[in-house]
Amino acid sequence: MANHKSAIKRHRQSLLARARNRAVKTRVRNVIKAVRAALVGGDVAAAETALLTATKVLDKAATKKIIHWKAAARNISRLTTAVNKTKTA
């Protein structure tokens, strides 16, 4: 553990940031799972609404630099493609 006052404060801040980042990453994983579950279930309407939520959550996580912006774009693209395939099929 740090001894300097500023280092102690920085450690405290890093713990808060870690908790916040973990919560956001968990939310990202859960919204992706929700879209995939709706696709597996064959519910196109639920998949579309879950996709809108997932897009918003992924974009916000990328904006806050919790995940890389290209990773967010890749996930959004793949989920959108999957939803669109089920719409046409």
TrEMBL record:
<dbReference type="InterPro" id="IPR002583">
    <property type="entry name" value="Ribosomal_bS20"/>
</dbReference>
<dbReference type="GO" id="GO:0006412">
    <property type="term" value="P:translation"/>
</dbReference>
<keyword id="KW-0694">RNA-binding</keyword>
<comment type="similarity">
    <text>Belongs to the bacterial ribosomal protein bS20 family.</text>
</comment>
<dbReference type="Pfam" id="PF01649">
    <property type="entry name" value="Ribosomal_S20p"/>
</dbReference>
<keyword id="KW-0699">rRNA-binding</keyword>
<dbReference type="InterPro" id="IPR036510">
    <property type="entry name" value="Ribosomal_bS20_sf"/>
</dbReference>
<keyword id="KW-0687">Ribonucleoprotein</keyword>
<dbReference type="GO" id="GO:0005829">
    <property type="term" value="C:cytosol"/>
</dbReference>
<protein>
    <recommendedName>
        <fullName>Small ribosomal subunit protein bS20</fullName>
    </recommendedName>
</protein>
<keyword id="KW-0689">Ribosomal protein</keyword>
<dbReference type="GO" id="GO:0015935">
    <property type="term" value="C:small ribosomal subunit"/>
</dbReference>
<comment type="function">
    <text>Binds directly to 16S ribosomal RNA.</text>
</comment>
<dbReference type="GO" id="GO:0003735">
    <property type="term" value="F:structural constituent of ribosome"/>
</dbReference>
<dbReference type="GO" id="GO:0070181">
    <property type="term" value="F:small ribosomal subunit rRNA binding"/>
</dbReference>
